[in-house]
Description:
190 residues, mainly beta, Deoxyuridine 5'-Triphosphate Nucleotidohydrolase, Chain A, 9-stranded antiparallel sheet, two-stranded antiparallel sheet, globular, nucleotide binding, dUTPase_trimeric, hydrolase
Amino acid sequence: MILADGDIKKALASGRIKITPAPDLTTQLGSCSIDLRLGNKFAVFNHSKKAFIDPNDPKMARELMEEVVVKKDEQFILQPGDFVLATTVESFKLPDDLLARLEGRSSLGRLGVVVHSTASVFEPGWEGVVVMELGNLGRMPVALYPGMRVCALTFEQLTHEAEVPYYKKKTAKYRKQKTPMPSKIAEEKE
């Protein structure tokens, strides 16, 4: 069951869902979702350093990515074909019986900007900021501004609490993330 706007408000008021800083419900609450705003930290690929990405090399993702911090009232230009990681202003925490799904906003999609390529589910027990996989599928650069509404979360009720919520998983690589962390897929190597 997907939570409706009234259920989201109740979950926020009771602390069942925690979002920090508190969202402005007059502009961020939809009928079954809550919008999150774009943060000011981006991780961009420096693709001229290596010929290819090796997912088994634990250092490569960190070496290939560089953090860009955008100052207040400035913009980040997402070039056509670019792929960057970006964070939201808000961090959130889920209880053990709810999951959240990340959705892009149609207004940005109509400009060619996609918000996630694969990572759309936040498991029960999640805590941290959203790290989005932003891409520009269009032919023109798009200016993105920290603080703009960039994505939405929907919430789904599980049939019961998860036996192993995210914070208890031994394989939880992005627990309490605060920055656009590069891939940690190399940690999965046996």
